[in-house]
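Colleagues,

Please find the record for the two-part complex below.
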Amino acid sequence: MTERIPIVENILSANDRLAEENRARINAAGVFSINLMASPGAGKTSLIEQTLPLLKDKMRIAVVDGDIATSLDADRAAAAGAQASIQVNTGGECHLDAVMLHGALNQLDLTQFDLLMVENVGNLVCPAEFRLGTHKSVLIASVPEGADKPYKYPGMYRGVNALIINKIDLLPYIDFDMDFFRRGVEALNPGVITFPLSCRTGEGMNAWINWLIENT
Amino acid sequence: MHELPVTQSILQIALKHANEANAKRIENIHIVMGELSSSVDDSVQFYWDIIAKDTIAEGATLHFRRVPAEMQCQSCSEKFHPDDEYLCPKCGGAQVKITAGEEFYVEAIDVD
């Protein structure tokens, strides 16, 4: 005879549990950690490259780079001054998950660092669903992507703790409706802190750097 | 996009609860999915047929209950389904809150 068993269990609860373990490990080492997410080409690696020289005299920084293939990004982070840079190749997966970060943490002596920057796979859909255990999720939007992205990728905009609006040096040359963009962001994520900046010119980087210093 | 890990999680959850109930077979899995929550689609059933093979969940049917997105205007309390813009259709207010559509969980299983 068929019997119904009520469950109500979050489908990604196993990942969430491992994310909590990651968080406990990171906390025990006294490290502040961020999960950087964005579409391909929004400027994740560029932001890390611009951030490292401004912070490396103040704190010790580890970078974990997630990509489907290659170690190009970890190489760039190392060249920019990261004390450690670990490449995680996801082997086709479209996002990092808590298991992959767990593996990367095994390669790091966390007690040697103050700040851990995790660069997720370029993708506005999947990384939002898989928590890693980092303290803050940071989304990089770039203005050439268009102002409609919060409406098209609500899950991503909904879950982040800080929003970087990159490539603002291009605003005079493109149609980007900032009011429309900000209205979508505010509906999904009321009061989220935003950092309009340009990795290319350096404009706006100070506020972002200060936020990292305050949190670390 | 990431149907395989999602399907594996659903299988783990279903098997765990079926074993606790000493079930011999899982016939149906009921999943609740909000419009805003996930990128997976019915291809989960395709993965299921492969990864559930040789378990008590082999041949089970997945049922998806989809929950539409819903927002509530913070000015006039009107509830509405968001369209291309997140503006209240009644008063035009831009202060809105998401009230439904983020669900993503296994609701129940039918076992023998």
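The first helix of chain A runs from residue 13 to 28.

Comments are welcome before we finalize the supplementary table.
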